[in-house]
Task: inverse folding
């Protein structure tokens, strides 16, 4: 049974609980009310796509709201016809004015509602509403992402519909070479904004996009690059069953570009930084530790002392130069991290036994940041700002 059919049944049942015998048809992104005379419809926006992600209680609540809006739309469509035969009584005028005010308030309330977990918006009127401007959309998604971030930092988990406004970033570091790391990473994105040669699973992801974004300025011996993933790629990253696919893509990218360090994490698009840590790579334990310190620690806000040169990756690598695998595992394991090696060692990464991968479970979004703070303590806070 598809989402449209389930919505039709749920809304019909909601109408029945109100004593209304009618049928509902979902066509595209609109719900139509049949069997009560004039056929009316309301816009569902992206509710059909979100239906499968909702728990039963949220589905029932959403069905009740659709039923309410359909009945309100029917009353709004029928009242003018009944008043065409003569003057409209003052009582009716007041009722219509109240109904209009209620419709505006309901519309505004639905646009900012977040009880579905994402702040998802749906039109509350049959008439066309004023389109959301890009600035308004950006502000709304920023509020949704900031609210989700606040819950994460308070220890809550990220709900299935809390992903609006999030992006996934792959951060890479490599010893300087004649060819540009940023150009090589950018070449892994098609002109249409899709990941190139990323495997069948990621190639089939809907509403997804990828693009290189500005990275840190090169240092004395190191260059950097970043790739930002949006839309469906974020869903794959956050889904426990999809996370291994995203990590496999990151490992492939590291191997083919001969990166020395890398990090895969999610954050709010408007704020940058690091919020949900997943995977950290190093050509050896020191570089893996430095990648964790830089991405999850510095970008994630775990290292809060005043910014200095020591916040750079090269400086943090210098502090972690003596870090070995056993120490890194001892520090990170209490936070759920697993320490291993890539499925295929990257080219030119030094000793074949050297590459280290540090992975954190999908169910612990802030564990990587906590592990970075613990590693900074283990190395000595005086040396790691």
Result:
């Amino acid at each position: 049974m598809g989402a449209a059919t389930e919505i039709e049944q749920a809304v019909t049942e909601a109408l029945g609980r109100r004593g209304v015998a009618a049928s509902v048809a979902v066509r595209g992104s609109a719900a139509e009310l049949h069997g009560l005379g004039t056929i009316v419809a309301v816009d569902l926006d992206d509710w059909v796509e979100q239906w499968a992600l909702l728990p039963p209680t949220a589905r029932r609540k959403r069905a009740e709201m659709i039923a309410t809006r359909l009945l309100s739309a029917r009353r709004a469509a029928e009242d003018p016809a009944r008043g065409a035969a003569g003057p409209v009584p003052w009582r009716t005028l007041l009722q219509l004015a109240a109904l209009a005010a209620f419709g505006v308030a309901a519309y505004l309330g639905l646009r900012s509602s977040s009880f579905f977990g994402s702040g998802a918006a749906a039109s509350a009127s049959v008439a066309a509403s004023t389109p959301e401007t890009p600035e308004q959309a950006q502000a709304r998604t920023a509020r949704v992402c900031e609210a989700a971030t606040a819950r994460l930092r308070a220890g809550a988990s990220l709900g299935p519909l809390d992903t609006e406004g999030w992006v996934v970033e792959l951060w890479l570091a490599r010893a300087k070479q004649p060819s540009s790391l940023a150009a090589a990473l950018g070449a892994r994105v098609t002109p249409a904004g899709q990941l190139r040669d990323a495997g069948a699973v990621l190639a089939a992801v809907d509403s997804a996009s990828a693009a290189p974004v500005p990275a840190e300025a090169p240092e004395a011996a190191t260059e950097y690059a970043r790739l930002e993933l949006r839309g469906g790629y974020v869903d794959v990253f956050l889904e426990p069953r999809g996370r291994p696919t995203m990590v496999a893509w990151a490992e492939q990218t590291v191997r083919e570009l001969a990166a020395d360090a890398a990090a895969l994490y999610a954050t709010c698009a408007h704020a940058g930084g690091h919020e949900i840590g997943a995977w950290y790579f190093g050509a050896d334990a020191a570089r893996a530790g430095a990648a964790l310190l830089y991405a999850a620690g510095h970008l994630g806000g775990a290292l809060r002392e005043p910014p200095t040169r020591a916040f750079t990756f090269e400086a943090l690598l210098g502090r972690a130069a003596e870090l070995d695998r056993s120490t890194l595992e001892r520090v990170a394991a209490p936070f759920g991290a697993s320490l291993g090696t890539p499925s295929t060692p990257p080219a030119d990464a030094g000793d074949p036994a050297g590459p280290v991968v540090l992975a954190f479970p999908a169910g612990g979004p802030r564990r990587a940041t906590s592990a970075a703070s613990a590693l900074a303590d283990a190395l000595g806070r005086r040396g790691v700002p």
User: Anything to note?
Assistant: Confidence is low (pLDDT under 50) at residues 81-102, 104-129, 345-350. The longest strand covers residues 166-175. The two ends are 56 Å apart (CA to CA). Residues 294 and 312 are 7 Å apart (CA to CA).
